[in-house]
Amino acid sequence: MKQRGFTLVEMSIVVFLILVLVAMAAPSLKAYTVEAHLLGAGHTFKGEFLKARSMAVKQGVYTAIRFERDGDRAYYSIYADGNLNGVRTADIRSGVDRRVAGPLPLHGGAPDVRVGINPGLYEIPPATGWLSGPATPGTFYLAGDGVQAAIRVNGSTARVRFWINRGTRWVER
Fold it and tell me: Would the pTM of this model clear 0.85, i.e. be above it?
């Protein structure tokens, strides 16, 4: 009778080739995971801006997203104006302006996403040059390992735009 099967050497070569392919794919998989987390956090944050705008229109009151810190934990909340003078810190402390959503973590629940700007990035269009310094009013930056996103809110129209950096260019999502 003839026996069929694989030798130990053949199986070892196949296992070795599989391990080499997995090792080569690991960095790409890590980068994809970080970008997916960044996109998720960015879309969550953009959704909160849209929710605040919708509440303002529906209820006819000012709403605000307020960035807050509790020790080393950073988060944000949505507040509604209770006395028609805008959302103010003193009114929040006294309970006149109430919290309607939050507190929500700034990283959107993704542990490898942080609030910040990675070094060496170009400005978001239509600006040109290099991005430097802190965020501009109306722009919020999320960063991951080698990946950058920005959420920009136009103050006059409350339009929310979500951008992700793809190497040397920004792409709107």
Answer: no
